[in-house]
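thread from #wetlab-drylab

HS: before we spend reagent money on co-crystallization trials with NAP, can we at least see a predicted complex? here's what I'd submit
DV: go for it
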Amino acid sequence: MKKERYNVGILGATGLVGREFLDILEERNFPLGDLFLFASENSAGERAPFKGKEYMVEVLNENSFKKKNIDVILSSPGASASSKFSPLAAGEGAVVIDNTSYFRMDPDVPLVIPEVNPEDIKLFKKKNIIANPNCSTIQMVVPLKPIHDKYRVKRIVVSSYQSVSGAGKKAMDELFYQTTGIINAKGDIYPEKFPVQVAFNCIPQIDAFSEDGYTKEEIKMIKETQKIMHDKEIRVSPTAIRVPVFFGHGESVNIETEKPFEIQDIKKILSKAPGVKVVDDITNQDPDKRYPFQAGVAGEDDVYVGRIRKDFSVENGLNIWVVADNVRKGAALNAIQIAEILIREYL
Ligand code: NAP
């Protein structure tokens, strides 16, 4: 018999993504039974408010999942902690939806964007784990999919303009303190989360470099796109850039399709696509209706697309500008949308 309520555990509950999980579970009225919050020793004894109650944050350890009957784990404690604790939770019968990079390319773990490949969720049974893609991949692939379905995407050249919240709460503090330090002309710049000064700067490096000169973030965008779209032929050429913005990633995406298209049809397809909102009226007096921008999408669910135009330098070329809230659709919301399908269709 179908359950009416599901017990949920959140790994990394005190982080940016963890806190967003709580907000979205409340907003979407998820059919929640018991709620268990886990974080590191740094948060021992902390409490988190949820629906008028306070929940104690537990320190994550090997015994955390025993005798709790957790149905769904929403996981975002970083890749290293997830590699250890997600399989333990899965072994105790919970289905883990993991936001970290650790399981994404595991052939026995589905990598899911609900608007793109919801049918892959059923593959969770092999390991009881479902992976959430990287934030920059999610917002690129959501508008790409309906274009691919009709015109077949051959190649993508993407430059990302990624906010500091993509690197967690300490990264946001780093931008804040560097910015106020520079404005008030006091204090030296001590980069910790970022390789160089991030305030008033753009950094052409997200994550570590690999031997071929690409960063791990860029490699994720290539491999994850091919896995989600089930198409190894799609060529992706990414450059990932960190910008001094608190929330929201922007991406300039250049697309080459196999079949020719009319630009009006692309606009029509995108305006009907699930999870996409088109804002593309460049002569509009209202700036919010001209094109999407990072400061305007914080807290929004959709992936926003604007600056839709032909690339006249190649055959069947298209340029779009894509913006989304990285902590929301790029992480917590995507995972909760997966959880909603999971409980509706499979648990
Ligand atoms: P964050 O703000 O730094 O939070 C990290 C969370 O993980 C905190 O709750 C922290 O607990 C917990 N944690 C760290 N080590 C732990 C351990 N050994 N055991 C248990 N809990 C531990 O980071 P975030 O932005 O929420 O990101 C979390 C994960 O989601 C990362 O893997 C990240 O790559 C991924 N992700 C983030 C985004 C984004 O836009 N931020 C998007 C997609 C995916 P304490 O507070 O106790 O230290």
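DV: The first strand starts at residue 6 and ends at 11.
HS: ok that's useful, forwarding to the group
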